[in-house]
């Protein structure tokens, strides 16, 4: 015997009333937000407009209103970040170039190159032109002229006496008891200091200590644009290394804008000051 829909309705309603006390915990464990999509037979844009969202939210408890503020230590464990200020005055920059390059030093470089030569890659996250490639060019030029400076130096008296003693060929006795003079190696006046042009000798003229002292005397530390790792300890952050890189960049900028002759004049004056301090 088939049952009609009217006869099944009372049975279903009674089953729902019996199961309702056991279903309410499951209802609260469902996701808070449910999204139902109504089917659309037109296009995707109209389907997006017909999308409806039904939200089921549980009552919120304002816990933050009753939370006590966290206790504060009387002494800060971490230092407050300090903003490192750099020079932005064109007048101060020109004074440094006047000390470094002489009275005509301001006219040697353009204002853009003057700023770029003293700007490190760490300044402003590298968004402004910095001196990395200029420093590479200037470092090669400095090594070249330091090597030529060593080759053109006058020989010391001890080296001269050693050469004169070698000029007299010693007598040598062969296996057949014949006496003959040993051959003299060829020596040219232009190559008299070739053995002295070693990597260590060139490094003494272009060392970081000497160039950092030269940069500090000109006031380069006050106009450099860079961002130190530790503003409270500039030596640990590498201020001398950045200053030496700026000196190399200035040499490269002079060679790039005014030619190798102007760069040679500046490097020669730098090497002469280094020679007097050695």
UniProtKB/TrEMBL annotation:
Q: Which GO terms describe its cellular component?
A: mitochondrial large ribosomal subunit
GO molecular-function terms, A-Z: ribonuclease III activity; structural constituent of ribosome
BP-aspect Gene Ontology terms: mitochondrial translation; RNA processing
- InterPro entries according to UniProt: Ribosomal_mL57 (IPR040030), RNase_III_dom (IPR000999), RNase_III_sf (IPR036389)
Q: Where is this region: Disordered?
A: 155-176
Give the RNase III domain ranges: 111-270
Top-level division of the source organism's lineage: Eukaryota
How is this protein named in the record? RNase III domain-containing protein
Per the UniProt entry, what species is this protein from, by scientific name? Terfezia boudieri ATCC MYA-4762
